[in-house]
Amino acid sequence: MKSTLGFVFFCFVLTAYYIYIPLPHTISEPWKLMMLDATFRGVQHLGNLAHSLGLSHHIKVLNFAVTFFGMLSPTSSEGVRVTDTVFDGVQVRVFEATRGSNSELKRSVVYIHGGGWSLGSARIQSYDYLCRKMAEDLNAVVVSVDYRLAPEVHFPEQYNDAYLGTKHFLLPEVLAKYSVDPNRVAVSGDSAGGNLAAAVSQQLALDSSVTNKPKLQSLIYPVLQALDFNTPSYQQNRDVPILYRPLMIKFWLEYLNGDPSFIHSLLVNNHTSLDLSQVATSREKVNWTLLLPSTLKKHYKPVVQATGTPKVIQEVPALLDVRAAPLIADEDVLKLLPQTYVLTCEHDVLRDDGIMYARRLEQAGIRVTHDHYEDGFHGCMIFGIWPTYFSVGIRTMHNYIKWLDQNL
Predict the structure, then answer these.
(1) Which residues are part of the catalytic machinery?
(2) Residue 192 burial by CB count (10 A; 0-12/13-18/19+): exposed, middle or buried?
(3) Of 184, 253, 257, 344, which is least surrounded by CB within 10 A?
(4) Region for residue 221 given its phi and psi (left: phi exceeds 0; alpha: psi -120 to 50; beta: otherwise)
(5) What's the DSSP call for residue 241?
(6) pLDDT means per 10 residues in the chain (408 residues)?
(7) What is the pTM for the complete model shown?
(8) What is the side-by-side order of every strand in the sheet holding 106-112?
(9) What does DSSP assign to residue 86?
């Protein structure tokens, strides 16, 4: 009996040790986040084990865990008709609000889900719920793009899928089919989906063949650059779940089909050193010492290497491709963009990506709404539903949809 109790106590202590991580006192519901993070880390460890044994790619294991219990069929409800279809070869899920007459033109949102260009789907519960809620609350048509994922495909295929699907939807005959007002369309996405939404918006602005341009872009904690992994938010939140700094770099290298051994070079900014002349112009566009307010710079110092690793840029040139890193776009392009909403979270390595982009857009004369959450963490908006119910997730989702309602 004593040995059994001792074993149970040992297991309890071991579990508590694995779950517990020190978190900032201002973060939303820390113990709940610890539980979520422990689950996510556990799956990552299983994926790494499977990868090392040659059983499966570690990303595939992680995506299996993310999607296995949450994939939903296109189920319509009283207020929203849901269908799966294909736009120019790209899988999409369409949510059509059924309120009002058939002749009434509706607003519309093209939504691009997050997941490090490697995880998730338009069909999983969290994004199905979000898009269904947007369609119902806005009395709108929401198109959720189900782009292909790494490791099956790499850049620029995810971008191409997002662009082709969005461009097809903006065709006059397609908008008419779905009774959408061509002057009231937004492009939106979260995390890696925010990256794709920003890149798609830039290309739509430049594409003269697109006659119907988006009225808005709305970016939820977007990832926008891979040149500086030592911004104040990367330094401050390097160990804050659920998006740790090394994990974000792994997602980048997977997306851009880079050698995983480059992780260390990227961690210390060896890929953007001063001796690499081809990086100079892009480096200035992510200069956080000029783009961030002093309240965020705090005591942090720029990490700039005098000499670096030219092999990284040589083998992964997409690090300097504006389609992968929308923050490094020229100001002449930014001037063409629509009114913008940027949501950022204090406890997120990507906080400064969003804030720097908002600042560059403002400098280009674009009207920007920056919505910042002091208790927020990366991914919080999709954790505003069962089984997590983070309060900050509920608030971010409510305010995001409210902004769309007021501006679209």
Answers:
(1) 191, 348, 378
(2) buried
(3) 257
(4) left
(5) S
(6) 55 62 91 90 88 89 84 94 98 94 89 97 96 98 98 98 98 97 98 98 98 97 98 97 96 97 96 93 96 95 93 96 98 98 98 98 98 97 87 97 98
(7) 0.96
(8) 80-87, 90-97, 140-145, 106-112, 180-190, 216-220, 339-347, 368-377
(9) E
